[in-house]
């Protein structure tokens, strides 16, 4: 495991919302990450299929991990996710890949697949690179 993978793994360990939703990082490397969700009753909507919010959360976390794989700090700027299919049982995976990395923004493609590698959703996330010191300073002022 290289230094960037360790940084990404450390960042994801601090993501309580991800763990609250039972989402796991399966792999992460420079410019690519795979996250998974083993479908549980808590992952489902009233119709018995994976909740769209769970799919979106997994996509955002996978895409965010890929953006962070360059060692810089990012926040989600925009996103679009197209829901195509769904499933009720098994495992769902989000695979995220860098499409473009600039000085201040990062564009990430993400595909959500289900059992049999069926495409369930696809989308793009744009992340804005932030100054971690400035964020910490603003956080102190807001307390």
Report on the structure:
The chain has 143 residues and is of the alpha+beta class. The chain has a single domain (3-141), classed as Hotdog Thioesterase (Thiol Ester Dehydrase, Chain A, Roll), CATH 3.10.129.10. The protein is 30% helix and 40% strand. It has a six-stranded antiparallel sheet. Helix 1 packs antiparallel against helix 3 (52-68). The protein is globular and about 45 Å long. The mean pLDDT is 87.
Tell me the total number of β-strands.
6
Largest sheet, in brief, is: 6 strands, antiparallel
Strand content: 35-45%
Which stretches of 5+ consecutive residues score pLDDT under 50? none
Query: What fraction, in percent, of the residue positions are helical?
Result: 25-40%
Helix-and-strand structural type: alpha+beta
Mean pLDDT: 87
| Shape field | globular
CA-based gyration radius: 15 Å
CATH third-tier fold name? Thiol Ester Dehydrase, Chain A
CATH class identity = Alpha Beta
Features:
143 residues, Thiol Ester Dehydrase, Chain A, six-stranded antiparallel beta sheet, 4 helices, 40% strand
Summarize the structure.
Helix content is 30%, strand content 40%.
Helices and strands in order:
Layout: H1 3-13, H2 16-20, E1 23-29, E2 32-38, H3 52-68, E3 73-83, E4 91-101, E5 105-113, E6 119-130, H4 132-141
Antiparallel strand pairs: 1-2, 2-4, 3-6, 4-5, 5-6
